[in-house]
Amino acid sequence: MTLLINDYIRVLYDEANSDKYEHSSISFWNYLLTKVYFTEDWFFTDREKPASPDDPLRRVDEQVRYFERGSMKTRVLCIHEGKKAGEGDSAVANVEGQAFEACATYCASSGMTHVYALTTIGTYARTWKYSSEEQEDRQFVALFGSAGLTNRAAYVDANSALAIQLDQSFRHMKQFLPSGAADQALQQPGQSRLHATGSDPSQIVPSSAGTTSDQQKEFTAAQQDGEWHWSKVHQKYYRFDKVNWIFQ
Questions:
Q1: Predicted pLDDT at 23
Q2: Is residue 219 situated within a structural domain?
Q3: Do residue 136 and residue 191 come from a single domain?
Q4: pLDDT for 209-237, tens place per residue?
Q5: CB under 8 Å, gap of 24 or more: what pairs does 37-41 form?
Q6: Which residue windows does the record flag with biased composition (Polar residues) (predicted)?
Q7: Does this model's pTM top 0.85?
Q8: I need a surface site. Which of 56, 68, 128, 147 has the fewest CB within 10 A?
Q9: Section 197-216 average pLDDT
Q10: Is-contact 233 210, C-beta < 8 A?
């Protein structure tokens, strides 16, 4: 699957890969986010805006924001930090570190328990979920794949068959807004806020109904590595936290 759905985005894709400046890469992803995935009126993007008013000099490359239902407060959905095409492996650690720090700063100042992140090197990207119930329990977990942090090979090009993973990630962000998770957790004070994100109490373990041998192997892998996996059966991400199955 390619994310290059029209001639305009193809032009930006080529510019991002041929230009030596970071802003060309950011423009490519900005077009993709605003014109393809987050097109509704309640979404908007900010560029070079601080993650928190408490640290106005630390600016983020791009933020996808939304109007919270009911309160109409503006919230951050996804923090995007990017580097230009052709950067070395050190850029991966740098950009992921910047995204983690921005997510942590935002959540600490806003009181939100999680926010998403997009890290890019040129037209290659990974998507993440930052979550924190307590300052000492902060997690930065990839939304697809089992590879950990600073793994350049895990980045997916927007014009490749694996781009379906990015497509699913952006759709997941839209379906499970950070505000929704916070609201559910407040209504169920005895439940972990992370677990409240789109989880279904009836789904204690992944159902084996209709699963293939490959999917069953994926369940087994999830039990062992604790990472997020995509269930074709449930059409959700899930992981095993050594005690419970968590669905998103």
A1: 94
A2: yes
A3: no
A4: 344 455 555 556 665 666 666 665 555 56
A5: 37/170, 37/171, 37/174, 38/64, 38/66, 38/77, 38/170, 38/174
A6: 199-214
A7: no
A8: 56
A9: 38
A10: yes
